[in-house]
Amino acid sequence: MLGGNPETGPFYVDTAAPGDVLVVHLNRLRLNRDFAVSDDFMVGRALDPELAATMKDNGKSVRWHLDTARGVATSESPGEHLKQFSVPLRPMLGCVAVAVPPQVAAPGTGDSGWYGGNMDFNEVVEGATVYLPVNVAGALLYFGDGHAAQGDGELNGNALETSMDVEVTVDVIPSRNIPGPRVESDTHIMAMGLAGSVDDAVRAATSNMAKWLTDEYKLNPSELAQVLGTSAEYKVSELADRNAGVVLKIRKDRLQSLK
């Protein structure tokens, strides 16, 4: 059964229309409580039979203390070997999404796809920009699923789940077709692939980035292969939900000479 996440929205964006791209700037993500909850479960996609047997009795809730002054999270009931273990805080949004077309059944808030959704990508942080294809008038933006920190793939099935204060601004790029979510940071452009298997997610991420480079830099197929073959960085972003997530990243300084 698919889980879900509390969401804020939907927000109607003036001028946004099907065929446009919604640009969501994450201006401020700030934790507003001093605890988070997670668990000691590990998702099946990450387990071979031996490790699955080792983990069979896991699934207990774990509560974390969030020390914003020190910028770390620590378990409130650490095991014997975790008494000095801490995790750097890096607040992120697990969900950023737009509405799907009216002819498509509305997805649950635990699911993800070309519209965004429960992507659980740990680089959707303060200062990042998320690009999503607009499918309905007004885009109907929503977001939620605050995490204080999360490793790649959300291996526990939950990150350090908590709440936060969020400020965003939005822009609209008219008449620009993108096949799925994209993220931009100060240093990288990042194309997401979300699909039923990791293999298919790799293909979707690669195709998403290939279109980005072709549209933006007018690369021919040979040039495209050379850029991707030398500069691609793949990151597993999501293993916990129905769709796996893979992100293809490229450093912006690698692309400066293509202008």
Describe this protein's structure:
This protein has 259 residues and is α+β, with helices and mostly antiparallel strands. It has a domain of 154 residues: Endonuclease I-creI (Roll). 16% of the residues lie in helices and 36% in strands. The chain has four helices and 16 strands. The strands form three sheets. Strands 12-2-10-13-14-16-15 form a seven-stranded antiparallel sheet. Strands 1-11-7-9-8 form a five-stranded antiparallel sheet, with no helix packed on it. Strands 3-4-5-6 form a four-stranded antiparallel sheet, with no helix packed on it. A hairpin with a 2-residue loop joins strand 8 and strand 9. The chain is globular and about 55 Å long. The termini are far apart. The mean pLDDT is 96.
Brief characterization of the structure:
The chain is about 15% helix and about 35% strand. The strands form 3 sheets. Strands 12-2-10-13-14-16-15 form a 7-stranded antiparallel β-sheet. A 5-stranded antiparallel β-sheet has the order 1-11-7-9-8, with no helix packed on it. Strands 3-4-5-6 form a 4-stranded antiparallel β-sheet, with no helix packed on it.
